[in-house]
Give the backbone structure.
Amino acid sequence: MTQTLRDKALLPAGLRDILPPNAAHEAGVAETLIGVFERHGYDRVKPPLIEFEDSLLSGSGGALAERSFRLMDPASHRMLALRPDMTLQIARIAASRLARAARPLRLAYAGEILRVRGSQLRPERQFGQVGAELIGSASPAADTEMILMAVAGLRAVGVEGLSVDLGLPTLIPALCRHWGVAEADARTLRAALDRKDAGAVAAVAPRIGDDRAALLADLLNTAGPAGRALERLAGLDLPAAAAAERSRLAEVAERVRAGAPDLTVTLDPVENRGFEYHAGVTFAFFARHGRGELGRGGRYLADRGDGHPGEPATGLTLYMNAVLRVLPEPDPRTRIFLPAGTPAPTADQMRDAGWATVAGLDPVDDPAAEARRLACTHVLRDGAARAVVAVDDEGD
């Protein structure tokens, strides 16, 4: 490759070309996931890649502002933002164009997102998302439906060793509000609990009280397999608001365990990272041999855009790059070479039978060699599909 061609092939950090057969594989996996969601009653929507900044990043979308590319719209002279996530767009659609649709509203989506920077576990800045939103229900059954539907979708595409980690990012804020903890100390506690740093939690004890610091340490130690975690959580003396949050988490966990007895379920009631705009039970999916999350979701308030409180909602987002990493490499596509001059009806019959056909454009002396050159597994000879290797063995 010449220097000029290398320069043209160079892409910004975190962006890449997806080549055959991986591009088709990703599209097929995404469509399988969407198909599972549709069979659960979710209707597909397709929001635009770019929106007005003050719409896309307003309200709870402000938590994603630092991840978003911005540019000036030459038509309206207003600032635009490229979507860093699709969940907020679905909430906008629900609140505007589908405001009169019956609730609960079930919507599904698939598309690309772009972020200013990647992370250590996910260095890609552009990747596909497949997800679903259930808007207009506050029932724990809605959270359960979302989790079990995601499990069904991930298993349908072949993910093995699947587990889900349930969280409750609203629990610590509820405690801090009840105790009247200063905002700076509350931020310190959230960061320490995210890092699982018991020492940093203990360091705040002089300002919030030893008993309260001890309770936070106990909460930190509850994380783990659902059965044990629920027992430990149930034994803690929590104020009313925090206890209500705990009850919600316990109910969702029990429903999920009943709906998918073979699913590994863990709990981490103090985890907050990545769930900044969530307002209740959250969840993240993992595979035994995977790196990082396959996807995440949880309860939030879908902005109505009219100054009123948002609608109760729960949603999930699956990251296609992470999902594909835990799946086997796609099998080479079965392709048949049709020598030049093959009648059109014959070619149609082969495609109707499920073959991917590659038509020869000019006559060649060795159709089998031409089939190999064009990455075909078979060649049409005497009206039948012949494996290229078999043709070679016969001396063709």
Notes: The mean pLDDT is 88. The chain is about 40% helix and 20% strand. The first helix runs from residue 3 to 9.
